[in-house]
Input
Amino acid sequence: MNMTFPEIVSTLSGWVWGAPFIFLCMATGLYFSWRTRFLQVRYFKQMWQILLQGKSSSSGISSFQSFNLALAGRIGTGKIAGVATAIALGGPGAIFWMWAIAFFGAATGYIETALAQVYKEKIDGNYRGGPAYYILKGIRNKSFAFAFAFVTIISLGLLLPGVQSNTICDAFQHSFGIDIRISAAFIVIMLALIIYGGVRRIARISEIVMPIMTIGYVVGVAVILIMNFQQIPAVFTLIIKSAFGLEQSFAGMIGAAISMGVKRGIFANEAGQGTAAHAAAACEVPHPAKQGLVQALSIYIDTMVVCSATAFVILITGTYRVYDSMQQVVFTGHGMPEAIMDYGPINTQLAIDTTIPGLGSGFVAIALFCFAFTTIMSYYFQAESNVYFLFRKQKTASSMIHLLRICILLVTFFTSINAMSLAWDLADIGVGLMAWLNLIALIMLRKISLKVFSDFDTQYRSGIKDPIFRPDRLGIANTESWTKSVD
Output
């Protein structure tokens, strides 16, 4: 039986995101939550305090810049198109499982970020790091490290940008009637100006754009929630009951709810995927755990705030339709026009238009542009870090960086004008492969990461408000950047 390329891609995506992977994601988050005594709860207040501490230096960016660079990678189309897709294919219950993976994933996010800080390197005057670095230095397996770096470059440079750029172009065409090719060209030109400016320009743009756009979007949807506050308890009940098959309309969708919730949750907050670890490694802090706590906070903001805001607006206004595994409609919300069968950003646009006529389409399109564009910027930075890892020689690395820039610009343009379903499946494969490799690495490095947390926790509870990391005292090797900074 011959299969088309999109069918092959869809099948591969199903294999990568099978039940074993979902179990691995949840089990890893639960394990690290338990071993750190739920740091995501105990240190919640300190996360906010650490976020605003520290400054950038000649070698590293600040915690706040790193936070926004990582947030740029998280707050992309997943917050608007991804949430709508989760509801369409998993029912309202998928939102509960997005919350679950975010809560436990905050501990996973802490672990990968702290490890990235422990094993970071200074390359060309800037700190670089990420899973490939801690796999090589911590596990000491060169083949494993190179495999992750290669998969990351392919995923972030070729497979993932298409989802972001494609969604921007579709939203602009729907909202403003702008031809897709014109939007694609505009995105590529803007992206080229930024990525050729280096990591500091990317960090500065993220530092400015992300807080403004995130607050603006949340405030916008908050207005709608306030206008419909009476319905919030009912929607919350609908999400909980649907997650466990207790809502009659979605009784047979428990598996789909869990699968889509975890899938879109990881795509949205990147917990365990390893991508945010690259931004975290670029930061200069006195202790790895401090940056780990900052990144755990970004997972909360990403899913608990932005994703939840989108989900509640869609569910309150009833602008959604739910499909089974055969793409047959099993439920249609009271606010969803019969003529519209698509799902994605249009659900959010309709939701906002329902409450504030005329605002939804343009508002969501602009929000999507800011979210998705900064995400592509973040993808480039993370892919660049892995190019430096693979090609250590100066001339070789420089040539490969130029090739990466050309490739991501070309891919961004051409995937903008192709089918969205194919773009999502390709992106899911990229995310899944990275997460598989990274989660295995985190489990193998659990003793070191927990030792780092215990060191921070002990110092902090003893009254030291700004703990200092000394890897030699903990018996952690291959930490040259920390040894030099201490000296």
Summary: Residues 56-60 have pLDDT under 50 and may be disordered. The chain is about 75% helix and 5% strand.
